From TrEMBL:
Family affiliation: Belongs to the EPSP synthase family. MurA subfamily.
HAMAP family attached to this UniProt entry: MurA
Major localisation: cytoplasm
GO CC terms: cytoplasm
Lineage of the organism: Bacteria, Pseudomonadati, Pseudomonadota, Alphaproteobacteria, Acetobacterales
Enzyme class: transferase
Function summary: Cell wall formation. Adds enolpyruvyl to UDP-N-acetylglucosamine.
Protein name: UDP-N-acetylglucosamine 1-carboxyvinyltransferase
Amino acid sequence: MDRFIIRGGKPLHGEITIGGAKNAGLKLMVAGLLTGERLVLTNVPRIADIATMRDLLVQHGVAVEDLNGDGSSYSIGGEITNTEAPYDIVSKMRASILVLGPLLARCRKARVSLPGGCAIGTRPVDMHLKGLETLGAEIRLEGGYINATAPNGLIGDRVILPFASVGATENLLMAATLAKGRTEIVNAAREPEIGDLVACLNAMGAKITGSGSGTLVIDGVDSLHGAEHRIMPDRIECGTYACAAGITGGDLKLLGGRVDDLGAVVRALEETGVEVTQESYGMRVRRTGALRGIDIMTEPYPGFPTDMQAQFMAMLAVAEGASMITETIFENRFMHVPELNRMGARINVHGSSAIIRGVHALSGAPVMATDLRASFSLILAGLAAHGETTLSRVYHLDRGYEAVEKKLAACGANIERVKG
Ligand code: UD1
């Protein structure tokens, strides 16, 4: 298992290219199941989760071609020969559940392993299943699998989500593109990645309106066709590197970064004393003064994203004064706290809130990654800490961040990957 060795204390200066969004790219690949024609995706991030999604699609029988041989563009297309998503892939990556709606819509049947729990919470899929039942699917849970059929095809209806779940919105959205008649998804999630998916589906011939409004209206069509789509920049990667500039007191040009996608994150950065500007090349982020403590609550978009919570916690650990972070999306997403405390942070967790008392400095230590975003919070802490930090279980990070050590080292960070 690879690990990172980080020697902290250097402000970061330079340019970092923001890659394609993981959370858009995965769903856009799944959208390839909705047509027999070729869907070409460009600006694909080179990360482990995308490779897992490729494996999943290939075992459904679909051809996935790496167009440039470097993992940056894929062509997806062909007939579906297998409607089962097996446990060994779904258990590796929860986003695999998103094949359920498209398989049902196109093949009228699907058998998908239940994803089960994961490190950051129980994460059930009840809203995905209830929504698909509203569209006429018959669903049975058996032997750890979701067996779903729609013998007469899916039929459009009004689905009211009790919570604006990102995954449930996407599953229903994709399924509804090929359903008979009109589907309305009320209380739909509004994350920018869903807007990207809508844009691609519409380019494939779907009829979707209401993107970003909280109510999606989908008029089903008989079939979708091929298209070419460029994946949007990863707002979470961009926000993460913005925190790297913030915690080290650096100045970074985040090429391709978009302030508009990051609303609440930009406001929080500014409140802590980090300056953010939109430039022609992307986002510029710098800090010259002290970091100030702030209070944050995670919420569905356009609120502060749960995927930026751990990175902000690292930054607030060295800010002046006290901060409070309340996590409302996932019930177990503070696993980075004990690790940050081992580096000298003063953080207490009370239920779904963490109180962070800023310390003057952190000190390097051996720490362990527990999930994707938590891993990066430990890198951030390591970049700001005195001495050496060893981060093990880097595979969590490789799931969702491309070339981390190269991007950071190019801006002056002392970080190396040790294979093993
Ligand atoms: C997606 C993102 C993830 C992000 C999250 C919230 C991807 C691949 N992942 O995950 O990075 O942190 O949105 O912005 O895009 N829930 C239920 N029942 C359901 C569905 C969800 O109870 O049927 C709960 C979950 O357990 C969780 C909350 O709703 O507590 C949010 O989940 P959801 O918005 O669905 O997140 P994901 O799509 O899994």
